[in-house]
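Board notes (copied after class):
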Amino acid sequence: MRYAGSCHCGAVRFEIEAPPVLEVERCNCSICAKSGYLHLILPLSKFRLIEGDASLTTYTFNSGVARHTFCKVCGIKPFYTPRSNPDGVDVNVNCLDTEPEEVRVVDFDGRHWEQHAHTLAHKSKDTG
């Protein structure tokens, strides 16, 4: 299924390919807990930025591997490059404009990231 997504102001628009029923992670790490991010990690081949590359800015911290991208206009983080899957993309399901058939939320213990990151590694692999 194709989903359209955007930041709040619409300066950044993207499209993803994902199943009609989405399993997403709710992470309790410092940045995700404060921003209310719901994670859908995908292979890069399932993501396409349609508009707004010039409207994006990047924030990194700690290891510097995760590249948190935000809209410069409205401040929303619609997607980013996750530390757990630097070869993929992590889309904020709250930024999808196309509504999924169902969203199943699974809690992820990001406060103890080092012990749990391996459970996410498969999500950016392209299975066809």
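Comment from the instructor: The radius of gyration is 14 Å. The longest helix spans residues 30-35.
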